[in-house]
Amino acid sequence: MGSNSSRIGDLPKNEYLKKLSGTESVSENDPFWNQLLSFSFPAPTSSTELKLLEEATISVCRSLAGLWTVFTLGGVGSKVAAASELSSPLANQSLLLLLVLANLTDAADAPNPYRQAIMSFKNTQDSSPFPSSIPHAFQINFNSLYMALCEQQTSDQATLLLYTLLHQNSNIRTYMLARTDMENLVLPILEILYHVEERNSHHVYMALIILLILTEDDGFNRSIHEVMLKNITWYSERVLTEISLGSLLILVVIRTIQYNMTRTRDKYLHTNCLAALANMSAQFRSLHQYAAQRIVSLFSLLSKKHNKVLEQATQSLRGSLSSNDVPLPDYAQDLNVIEEVIRMMLEIINSCLTNSLHHNPNLVYALLYKRDLFEQFRTHPSFQDIMQNIDLVITFFSSRLLQAGAELSVERVLEIIKQGVVALPKDRLKKFPELKFKYVEEEQPEEFFIPYVWSLVYNSAVGVYWNPQDIQLFTMDSD
Predict the structure, then answer these.
(1) Contacts with 373 (C-beta within 8 Å, 6 or more apart), sequence order
(2) Strand pairing partners for 11?
(3) Long-range CB contacts (within 8 A, 24+) of 226-233
């Protein structure tokens, strides 16, 4: 049987659907019946088998249709469903149901069995026995699951499932991190972040946390710089004819930080973006020149913002001296937040210079080109310690460029940098603790996830009607 055919057996498709459903009103384009017709059945070998199969099929389909009618209240969906949801309605409903079940709260005397099953299932190729402590065990083909997740990241529910599996199932996390085609998974996640303006905030959070979980692994951080990509068409700021997956990841995360600074100003988003960059920083390899430029440009933006707040604080203080009645704005808090971010960026740059200076001539070039930016922070008490290595590198290579003469080409500067890396004594760079951040869920994650999952059910379930006036779990303008 196949839903793409205009005939089913000896009958036209629309006549077969009427016979199957027991009603004259069924549409030839109805997603439910087309989904059922898309399943493959073994071909009968006799007329008796054909009759039995037809009767069984009609019985099952009518039973399912009855359940479907009850479930949808005979009505239509709350919102127009996306094309991907309409093309595979049964898969979409199943995924939503799985997310609802996985996010049920634990009973007082028993944990959620659905969550337990999601946390412990294994690959079909894994022949090791399940521990006796795992009551709800099953196996699934990890390769098929991985490929499906790679293809479906345009939807909130698929990204939420990926997050759930990566965070809660160590078997899945180990398998995915061992894949040699991680770009198939990472690129769709980066595209979600790149189009942050078009995505809801929850979808962006999930995509960012997935990246943070992946960057906790040093093997991932090394391998992404070995994967070369060509012609990233969705990246429109600049034509990227060839770039490593690692450099592209850095570009997208920095763009997300800059968007957040100018639009949403979400501290949670900032923190996770910087944590992902920090996790990767010791493993930066052969950074693309544009990625290196964007790192320094972000620092430049932060520096300007720092100076602006300082200027506003000074002017406000002067104004308050002449008028005791005017309350003084709290610029100290703004300044502390900006200085925390500036310090983190300096730590990221320092981590790269300390651990992989010889692999990143483009970053050294970008630092030298904008070396005046760092002058004001050399003696600043909040940054003095972390500035030591950056100042040393800038001073060392500036001296070598001065010795080489004026009017040097870009190629000649890079050549001098590569030669200078060998001559720079490594023991002169001060060692700092390794930057490592780990994602940890909030103490009561259900306060975020349960309303989020049900908002997805409301917005995405195909053909399911919910009375908007009765919804109390989330606001109707919830993303």
Answers:
(1) 296, 299, 300, 303
(2) 8
(3) 226/285, 227/182, 227/183, 229/183, 229/187
Name every residue whose Cβ is closer than 8 Å to that of residue 358 and which is 6 or more positions away in sequence.
421, 422
Cβ atoms < 10 Å from Cβ of 405: 8
Q: Label residue 89 by pLDDT band (50, 70, 90).
A: confident
Alpha-carbon distances, residue 160 vs 59, 100, 290, 425 (angstroms): 36, 11, 31, 47
Instruction: Answer yes or no: are the C-beta atoms of 161 and 98 closer than 8 Å.
Output: yes
DSSP-derived 3-state class of residue 186: helix
As given in the structure block, the two tokens for residue 422 are 């060998």
DSSP annotation of 358: G
pLDDT for residue 321 is more than 90? no
Burial of 108 (0-12, 13-18, 19+ CB in 10 A): exposed
Question: CB–CB of 155/82 below 8 Å?
Answer: yes
Which range, 7-21, 79-93, 173-187, 310-324, is most confident?
173-187
CA pair distance 149, 177, nearest whole angstrom: 14
Instruction: Give yes or no for a contact between 396 and 424, defined as CB atoms under 8 angstroms apart.
Output: yes
For residues 476 and 193, give the distance between their C-alpha atoms in angstroms, rounded to a whole number: 24
* Nearest to 88, CA basis, from 39, 121, 128: 39
Bridge-based pairing state of the strands 122-123 and 139-140 = parallel
430-448 pLDDT, tens per residue?
889 899 999 998 888 888 9
Could you tell me whether strands 7-8 and 139-140 are parallel, antiparallel, or unpaired per DSSP bridges? Answer: unpaired
**Residue 247: exposure state from Cβ atoms within 10 A (0-12, 13-18, ≥19):** buried
| Coil/strand/helix, residue 8 | strand
> What is the distance between the alpha carbons of residues 475 and 470, in angstroms, rounded to a whole number?
11
CA distance 74 to 52: 30
| Percent composition of the chain: helix, strand, coil (DSSP 3-state, to 5) | 65, 5, 35
What global pTM score does this model have?
Answer: 0.79
The residue count for the chain:
479
The Cα–Cα gap between 198 and 307 comes to: 32
* Residue 71: strand, helix, or coil: helix
